[in-house]
Design a protein that fits this description.
By secondary structure, this protein is mainly α. Helices cover about 35% and strands about 0% of the residues. The chain has a domain of about 70 residues: lambda repressor-like DNA-binding domains (434 Repressor (Amino-terminal Domain), Orthogonal Bundle). Helix 1 packs across helix 4 and helix 2 crosses helix 3.
Length: about 100
């Protein structure tokens, strides 16, 4: 079920969602373009986590315009760049193969 798209987006996450849907992209595709994981895109779109300045610059480049200087984090106390769990989203890492016989417990 699709959630509605704001007719008049107010925050950068709503602008991102509108642009993504207008272009026919999925969260995964936009995440690959922006260099983040898809969960991060979802969190931005629903204003559940703040953007770091470098991430905001990538989103503005994707949008093609800067939506303005709106306050991204309602509780913005200057710690908007500090992401804490559950907002951290680590890319999947492929670990090298290990010989299980050499592991000692």
């Amino acid at each position: 079920m699709w959630r509605k798209v704001e007719a008049e987006p107010k925050i950068i996450g709503e602008h991102l969602r509108r642009k993504r849907i207008d272009m026919g992209f999925t969260n995964v595709q936009v995440a690959q373009i922006l260099g983040v994981c898809y969960q991060t895109v979802e969190r931005w779109e629903h204003n559940r986590c703040p953007m770091l300045p470098r991430q905001r610059a990538k989103v503005v480049a994707f949008l093609g315009y800067d939506p303005g200087g709106e306050k991204e984090n309602p509780a913005d106390d200057g710690s908007a760049g500090i992401l804490k769990p559950p907002y951290t989203c680590w890319p999947s890492v492929r670990l090298p193969k290990t010989d299980k016989r050499k592991l000692q417990f």
